[in-house]
Amino acid sequence: MNIQESHLTKNQHLQIYKLMLSCRAIDKRVWMLNRQGKAAIVASAQGHESAQIASTVALEIGKDVFFTYYRDLGVLISLGLSFTAILQGFTAKSGEPMSGARQFPTHGAIPDKKLINLSNVVGTQIPQAVGAALSAKIKGTDEVVIVYFGDGASSAGDCHEGMNFASIHKLPIIFFCENNGYAISVPLNQQIATDNIASRAEGYGMPGTTIDGNDVNLVYETTKLASRRARNGEGPTLIEAKTNRFLPHTSDDDHSRYRNLDELSNKEDPIDIYKKFLLSNNFLTNDMFEKLTNQINQEVDSATEHVESLPYPDRDTFDSHIYKSTE
Ligand SMILES: Cc1ncc(C[n+]2csc(CCOP(=O)(O)OP(=O)(O)O)c2C)c(N)n1
Ligand SMILES: [Mg+2]
User: Fold this and answer.
1) Does residue 135 have a pLDDT over 90?
2) What is the CA(299)–ligand 2 centre distance, in A?
């Protein structure tokens, strides 16, 4: 795919930047809450923000359908999940909107934004998303489905079955792989025998492209193009966005045991890269940056204070929000 230019307006750029800063701020907060024993587990999105957020905003929110995986906090923030709801999820507090705090954090559904509930089992969202795309095609809804997954998930049988089926039937779906080079401790060269994941697309008969996931404009334009193909009935696209996982796999992992942490010191932060772009194009000033970060930090602080004061779900609601047998 050939990306000639950015079609984002100044306002859209600033909106994306705000989402990226918000994602990082709340991600840091939940990581801190985990260290304080208040959040059971965190799979951090730090390093993935540009890939997640620029791809989400390239779609039609409210119309298109989102299938995510556990690391996709940036997608949830872009779909409008509030700091309070995110913190309720991570700390399992009462009133959490996606599942009543019954699910693993970030795993629930937001029905009006067409964010579909997910399983933690790697790759399972892929054939489910293909099913949703088949449904959209049969019903003629004009929806595009996007499914997010990691490089590790790309080796799962579910991924092969989903891509093969979607391509045969020219389904309106975008396969969005966040390739951070690791599946927990397993590096990419132990997962695939090729240089990249997108080259597999040819074998399925669909276009595939490997892009720099740190480049907001590139992620946005590539996803836009893929969504146009999908909506025009031209079928699926595989996008492989190269990104970096800055923190361990989850808060239960110690990546210094299998990764030379020096490799991370030369990786530029996607948020810094975007800030430079915004400053050099006069979309942002240092003054605006200060105001924006102060505002976001204050919002994160007050949401934390509020959520910490909330109770855990009441014992009497034990069997609410879950499927149960009536026998
Ligand atoms: C079917 C299955 N196998 C193994 C696991 C354990 N597991 C959880 S995350 C993960 C790695 C996935 O890596 P990747 O898809 O690259 O995503 P990343 O965490 O790097 O973003 C594994 C093996 C699982 N949840 N489900
Ligand atoms: Mg990975």
Assistant:
1) yes
2) 30
